[in-house]
Amino acid sequence: MNIYLRLVYRNLRANLDRASLFFELIFPLFFIFVQGFGLNGIVPPFDIGNGKFVSYSLFLAAGAVTLTVINGGTNAGTQLWFDRKNGMFEQILMGPFTRAQYILSIIFATLIIGVAGSLLVFVFAFPVVGASFAFSLEGALLIAAALFFGTVFFGAFAITLSVALKSSETFQVVSTFAFFIFLFTSSVFFPASSAPSAIQAASLANPLTYTTDIFRAGLFSAATSTTSLELGVLAVEAAVMFVIAVLAFRRIRV
Amino acid sequence: MRGQDPVIRVQELSKRFGDKVAVDRVAFDIDRSEVFGFLGPNGAGKTTTIKMLTTLLQPTSGRATILGHDLRTEGRKIRERIGVVQQQDSFDQGLNVETSLDIYGLIWDVPRPERKRRIGELIERLGMEEFRRKPTIDLSSGQRRRLQVAREFIHDMDLLFLDEPTVGLDPIVRRTLLDFFKERVRDGLTIFFTTHILEEAEYLCDRIAVINEGRIIDVDTPENLKRRFGSAKAVEFKLLQGSSAELAALLSSSEGVTRLVQEPSTGTYRVTTARPESVIPEIYRHAERLGVTVSSIYISETTLEDAFINLVTENHGAGVVSGGRAA
After folding, report:
1. Deepest in the core among A144, A188, B41, B240, taking most CB within 10 A?
2. Would you say residue A182 lies in a domain?
């Protein structure tokens, strides 16, 4: 079996907490089925681009699916954290593996969790979003690209945090706080264009904004002339974050 | 295979952390099927040496070849043929013992039927039956240590690094592990073994390097070390009154006394000294002055521990003593 497959399988089996995964799925579904329907009656449908109008529950459902990307990303940091805490980081590096193979295996495992989690949430949310979903190759590619780059960014971000922070408690607190900032300065809950200018400015740097916008564009066939630019920005941010994570990872002292 | 290229050849290997020299120009050879002990007090440089030899740390200077591969340029090839039991715990927290062994075998690419066979054999041999389905997070430190050892024998290797592998084990399990290592050595395995438990080193090792403050003080067989550096004798005595802190304090500061310890279970004092003929009258003189009675006294056999203490004490901050077969 390929070395990456072996390491990824090990990461998925050894470092993932089933209870945490369950709640990572429940969390977005709560937004879709409680908050979305709750606010649907007071928020009128609005244009998400390309002349496409959607209800708030649809808008939020698509955003909530991309929330799973963040949760999947957090798992990357947790995997590395557990391995360091439990001595498996050094143990694996004393085996026939390189540091690059190890860190890539964490990223691959994170991608599986992020993408599979998002698709699972999408399946659960299908009664809400299904009616507006029209499959097209372009849409599917946009969805895949959004989930891929989003997971890479947040996985790399969580890895960087777990390397930089000295205790698991601090890691949990800081990552939760950081992800709240990403969440509330993005377009998950509301269109960034209608937010106050400070939040708009923050949303322009926020990869979750692009992840969500591209995902929605793919889902609702609402791609505009700016979608490819957004995809480019997200890809660059993911690449930069990945490089930062690799540099941080290389600095781990054994 | 003795007489062929050594399994480990280390030449002037050093490691610095900033200004601190953790390992200072160590040199030795290890043959196939040899158990080589690395003996030293805490902080002597044992673990740093292992980390360098297992390619986890880059040496600051010096050279080494492991199984014929260069330490600096062929790390991957080396790691494919070694096993390491770390001093610290290492376990996959989301798995039980059996699954943990299986997944470790999987990442080493051991075929499934072979993994299954080895897991069964190791669980039985190392007495892990009662906790084979227990989550690793719930294991005691001794059980975890057994898991760590078992895990390394899931995959094939030519050289095993054991960094204080018996810490936290009861005497019976400890002996089981040491005997298991001996069996595997008879099958051709080479072992690099660090410990500060001298009885273990004496029981298991063919040769011992004594390291202190990053430098190898001596390399020799346990018997030769005892003979050459065990000139210090141990005077053992008991007091009718059990113990006397004043007497212990006076003796500790007496000239010629290298070390004084009291065995907690028996109350026996053990004085390590090169001059028992002057220490024994000193014991009686202090006892009389303090009003305590010596109920028994005798000069005991030299142990490896005596030799070790003598070596480390004599060479504290001094140069390397020649002897043995350091490369």
Report:
1. A188
2. yes
| Nearest chain A residue (CA) to B86 | A91
- Please give the tally of structural domains in chain A: 1
The DSSP element (H or E) to which A20 belongs, if any, is: helix A18-30
Put simply, the answer to whether B84 touches A94 (Cβ < 8 Å) is yes
From the candidates B57, B71, B92, B152, which should be mutated to test the interface with A, based on the most A CB atoms within 10 A?
B92
Residue A66 forms part of a structural domain: yes
Asked if A254's CB is within 8 angstroms of B91's CB, the reply is: no
Which chain B residue lies closest to A89 (C-alpha atoms)? B90
Is there a domain that residue A254 lies in? no
- pLDDT for B314 equals 66
Q: For B44-89, what is each residue's pLDDT tens digit? A: 899 999 999 999 999 999 999 999 999 999 999 999 999 999 988 9
Looking at chain A, which runs of residues are DSSP E strands? Answer: 46-47, 53-54
Range of the domain at A51: 2-249
Is residue B188 predicted with pLDDT exceeding 60?
A: yes
CB A62 within 8 A of CB A218: no
Output the pTM of the full model: 0.79
Asked if B55's CB is within 8 angstroms of A98's CB, the reply is no
ipTM: 0.82
How many other CB atoms are there within 10 angstroms of residue A12's CB atom? Answer: 18
Please state the φ and ψ torsions of residue A186, each to the nearest 5 degrees. Answer: -115, -170
